[in-house]
Amino acid sequence: MHIDLIRTFIQVAKSRHFRKASDQLFITQSAVSARIKQLEQNLGVELFVRNKHDVSLTTAGVRFLGHAEKLMASWNKACHAVMLPESMEASLMIGATDTIWSVFLTDWIVDIQNKHADLAVWAELHTSKSLMPSLIDGMLDVAVMFDAPALPGLYIQALPDITFVMVSSQPNLCVDAALQHDFISIDWGEAFAAAFSQNFGAPIVTTRHTSVGGVALDMLLKAGGSAYLPKQMVHEGIQSGKLFMVDDAPQMKRPIFAACLQNAAQDELMHELLDSMLRFHQ
User: What top-level class would CATH report for the domain 87-282?
Assistant: First the structure.
């Protein structure tokens, strides 16, 4: 069975729309329809109920979805396996957002490769929204993120919190002044937004917004302002005198989590790697 048919089925099932699936797969809507029709003919069942505005899975489609995701994951793992150099015994595909890479994950990768010379590593940069689909589809072995997903079939390893501090390009600012001094609003997820609201009440009016920690840090260094950033990210700027702590601003913590598929967590190497990640980040 052609793997493109499986990939297309999964995308339509997730988006519940042929046109949206075509946009996400970078193919025409007619190609999506043709692939689904061919897959249904191969299986001898209808997988979707077609409605005017969207589609929904039939009972057969629901039953097939889990198998399709496992097939996709196996295919992706096979593709990576055949690409391994002969000297490599295992591989690890790990994804995270830019902030988590910057805070500790890059150093962890260096550490584990020093201990496992026969481990090939693919380090992938992801958005928070693309991590889970990539993990479930088998494009990643491990996803490291701020918010733990409540999904069946996943093993979740809680990691130590990341501490966020308010910093400014100007020294000796109080928190009220910093919030009014070109404050950069960063999307650190729902938990952080709730903590921010609890500490400061109404959202801060600002003209600068981003969801990327590295972008906010560059803004601070090049254009000035204030922002909440992970303590590890601003350490060098503070040491060099380019950034300054806003001392009366409350520190805020965010938990992070490593996720893998439940069956992968039973693998001895995977268990060792997740355990080392926990100890490394403490």
Answer: alpha beta
